[in-house]
Amino acid sequence: MNKFIFAAITAALLMPAAAQAVEKSSARAARAAKTTEIGSESKVVLRETVKVRSRIVRLGDVFTNVGAQADTRIAYAPEPGKRAVFDARWLYRVARAYGLNWRPLGNQDQIVVERDSQVITRGEIEDTLLAALVNYGATPSMTMELSNRMLRLYVPAGSLATVGVEDASYEPRTGRFTAIVTAPANDPRAQRHRITGRLHKMTEVPVLNRPVLSKEVVSKRDIEWIRVRSDRLRRNVIVNADNLIGMAAKRGLRSGTPLQTSFVQRPILVAKGSLVTIYLNVPKMSLTAQGKALENGSDGDTVQIANTRSNKIIEAVVTGMSKVSARPAGFTAIN
To answer: Among 225, 230, 249, 283, which residue has the least CB neighbours within 10 Å?
Structure first.
């Protein structure tokens, strides 16, 4: 009798075209097969929510106090990550078919069935895809941009949360790719998903790990590295740390962002209008004099210096903070 009931209700639920015809015969058979376990004293209650681990929804998943019929199959479960809503009309047909003492209070009665599953995140999908696309010309240092940014895959609870790539194509010139992925991997029953996206080349660039004030000199300990899409880098962005270390900020600089060459300069050791010491080193003699800088100068720059007494002007090379070195002819002139 149980086999007859199962066949009848399965046809009613999974083959809508024959549902009404089967409902009558299955209902009569179910009423005749009532057991004492589902008597009038047992109140059948509709569960609020259902989470099933298998591909089948059973009578005991939906209703309480159904006795020996609890394991009876009544519907297919939704795919992992999806939900199914069974409404009052459907539930009442099931209750009648199996002789359950239950009827809906109104059309608002329903039950939500979920499939117990585990999530494969976007990051895991990207890692697997990139590893597969290396065989088609991609490089491991690239970053991936999926067309569906909200993509997540679901696998049944208890399965291995793995991703497989069955077919893929990659165009190096544009960076675009297409792939068919499965989850779990190597499972013949796994769903197949078509995924598209684009790969981007990346460049490591030095950035500041702290804010730097105007005129402050950048040291090696102020540097950290980040990866940036190569197509988003401007031509004058600093990509070599040697071009940043030892340089002074022209203005306040933020941390964590790529820096352009125009943001920094060599430190000003001689400021325009400041007093400097002029050095002359010749064999067996070293002379000094005081002058006034007529322009800014960094280490190694040639700047104009005026004698504070005679106002005669010479050119000298900046050698340190407020220090310049003059040639013998210029030193003689300034004195």
So the answer is: 283
